[in-house]
Backbone:
DNA sequence: TTCATACTTCGATCATAACCGAACCATCGA
DNA sequence: TCGATGGTTCGGTTATGATCGAAGTATGAA
């Protein structure tokens, strides 16, 4: 049984600019309405409706109806990951003239990948957590006792995370950095907390912007530094 | 600048069954001729020629002429990785009726990803190497001193690997296992060595089959076991 | 109940691209 | 040099699919 047609059926869905724009608009983990997605894709409502029906039928999206509004979101983090992989490949192969504007640098620095922190900051988070012994296991990531203490102190309800079906710690390959950042339920919870503490704010699209205070706090909490005294702040 | 069209341009290339078959046929890292690829894709020579021209122009493939033969191979491991990512997404979203035949199980057990070991065995290799302290760093993988000794003893010329441009240790996400296996120059060298020692042989397509002796030797060398006494064999 | 808004469906248009037969070009070996 | 083999290019065919105007359905608010 050939694998080509299976790959092609998924890839063909991504191979239309309007549909790719729709999926990209959803990469920050939010749910958007048909109208919003039509606008994001630059097509009419009816065209967007047809595209969304296809993506829904293919289980790339999940739809929820709220009154007369129909909200769509990505069906899982692996969709975002495939999109990121394709962007990385496009860049490496020259399919995109890399116009290094401020937005590109911002995306590289810190962005949302589905629901967790990605980019340089995202990779730094995972590397720092491992360096400090909060997360162990290399590939089968797991919280250490020390990590449980630190993340609990940081404001994360670990027992709630562990009750869910989603793996707590999951390495998620970051294509702008070519290393992994932290996905999974913990990755998502950390991003929520960062935003809650106003260390980070959502910016245009998937861009995340650290506040000055937030960058300091982040580095102090998750940086690869001699940890005990710098974290007294 | 929207990312949709960039993603779509790459994805559209993968979205044709014949082209996807061509790329899949090259996923085991070999270079094949136009005729061989036409056969693998199930199209005529002239159709394959057109497809290959497109993939070549997009830098997804690299072509080499040898007399009247024209050989193509993937332009890098990230192409294989994108294909694996798409296969994983296809499976999760139900785009493939998972007919669990022996071939699927064999691919899951051990297969070639570009030029290194993937599947259960591939993940076990990386996990075991980290468990034994041969490779450190979680995400920024690096050889330890102990690892240098063990891999050298295993028959790998590390100084040659380090002279090349390719990173020695690289985590490569394994989509059948949802964890990373070991890519990079070391991953490739290990697979070469496994084949050389006849612990593994190439089988149909990308399937790798461990010999009995090879499975034992592999587990003894790279398994997550109390290492000192079992490795005396 | 009526009107406004969100969304879906239908039908027609039109551009695109995969496909293959035929012809041509390039290389190899007798 | 000729014939065989590998591969490219050309031209015509045909199926596909994105697009949008128009019309219809569903929901919410006044």
Residues:
């Amino acid at each position: 049984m050939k694998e080509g047609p299976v790959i092609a059926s998924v890839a063909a869905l991504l191979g239309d600019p309007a549909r790719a724009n729709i999926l990209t608009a959803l990469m920050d983990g939010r749910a958007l309405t048909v109208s919003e997605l039509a606008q994001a894709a630059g097509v009419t409502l009816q065209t967007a409706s047809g595209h969304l029906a296809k993506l829904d039928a293919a289980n790339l999206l999940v739809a929820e109806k709220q009154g007369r509004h129909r909200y769509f979101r990505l069906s899982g983090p692996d969709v975002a990951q495939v999109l990121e992989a394709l962007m990385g490949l496009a860049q490496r192969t020259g399919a995109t003239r890399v116009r290094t504007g401020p937005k590109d640098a911002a995306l590289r620095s810190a962005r949302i990948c589905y629901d967790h922190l990605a980019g340089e900051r995202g990779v730094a988070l995972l590397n720092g957590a491992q360096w400090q012994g909060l997360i162990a296991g290399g590939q089968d990531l797991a919280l250490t006792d020390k990590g449980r203490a630190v993340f609990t102190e940081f404001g994360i309800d670990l027992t709630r995370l562990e009750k869910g079906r989603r793996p707590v710690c999951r390495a998620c390959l970051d294509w702008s950095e070519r290393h992994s950042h932290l996905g999974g339920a913990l990755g998502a919870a950390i991003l929520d907390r960062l935003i809650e503490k106003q260390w980070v704010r959502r910016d245009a699209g998937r861009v995340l912007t650290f506040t000055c205070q937030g960058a300091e706090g982040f580095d102090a909490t998750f940086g690869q530094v001699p940890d005990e005294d710098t974290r007294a702040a």
About this structure: Chain B has two domains: 4-75, 80-230. Chain B touches chain A through 63 residues (CB under 8 Å).
